[in-house]
UniProtKB/TrEMBL annotation:
GO terms for biological process: DNA repair; methylation. Pfam families: DNA_binding_1. It comes from Streptosporangium roseum (strain ATCC 12428 / DSM 43021 / JCM 3005 / KCTC 9067 / NCIMB 10171 / NRRL 2505 / NI 9100). It comes from the Bacteria. Residues 84-163 form the Methylated-DNA-[protein]-cysteine S-methyltransferase DNA binding domain. SUPFAM superfamilies: Methylated DNA-protein cysteine methyltransferase, C-terminal domain. Keywords: DNA damage, DNA repair, Methyltransferase, Transferase. This is O6-methylguanine-DNA methyltransferase. The keyword Repeat does not apply. It catalyses: a 4-O-methyl-thymidine in DNA + L-cysteinyl-[protein] = a thymidine in DNA + S-methyl-L-cysteinyl-[protein]; a 6-O-methyl-2'-deoxyguanosine in DNA + L-cysteinyl-[protein] = S-methyl-L-cysteinyl-[protein] + a 2'-deoxyguanosine in DNA. PANTHER family: METHYLATED-DNA--PROTEIN-CYSTEINE METHYLTRANSFERASE. GO terms for molecular function: methylated-DNA-[protein]-cysteine S-methyltransferase activity. The keyword Transcription regulation does not apply.
Length: 171
């Protein structure tokens, strides 16, 4: 069974989906079914049920919101993708909170040539586990916030939250 929990956040509800204790999807929506439909059919075959508390993943979100910016890093997760996409997703998880990089740099960090910036953008666009896989930390080289599946106001809130807390922890 895929278990779902919806958590309140300052930028709107965050839905977490978990299978056997591993997060398989997360996103800023109040509708678990919306996230469920983005899962591969092999996971959809398990069905979906709402639960009161997913345990560690839910606590990690609360801790992150309370200022522990590395809390999401300890959560087990999995999502589908080619070996190249998996390298990009791993590199995404290694971008520290409070910092941003461009798509070309993400590709470089994944050990891919600079020309793979387009693949980096596609990996971000198809990311099923926001903010655990922090695609919000990737910005276009032309400036601005770029796109974000859950809207640029959510991306902006996440970046502002992280930057403010990262700066205070350095002081």
């Amino acid at each position: 069974m895929i278990e779902a929990q919806v958590l309140p956040t300052p930028t709107g509800p965050l839905t977490l989906l978990s299978h056997e204790g591993v997060v398989v999807a997360a996103g800023f929506t109040a509708d678990p079914h919306q996230m469920f439909l983005r899962l591969p059919s092999r996971l959809q075959a398990y069905g979906l049920r709402r639960v009161e508390d997913l345990g560690h993943p839910a606590q990690a979100v609360r801790d992150y919101l309370d200022g522990e910016l590395t809390a999401l890093d300890s959560v087990a997760l999995t999502q589908p993708g080619t070996p190249t996409r998996q390298r990009l997703l791993t590199a995404l998880r290694e971008v520290p909170a409070g910092t941003t990089i461009g798509y070309a740099e993400l590709a470089e960090r994944a050990g891919l040539p600079r020309t793979a910036a387009r693949a980096a953008g596609a990996a971000c666009a198809q990311n099923l586990i926001a903010p655990f896989v922090p695609c919000h930390r990737i910005l276009p080289s032309a400036g601005g916030f770029g796109g974000y599946y859950y809207g640029t106001p959510v991306k902006q809130w996440l970046l502002t939250h992280e930057k403010a807390l990262a700066q205070t922890s350095v002081l």
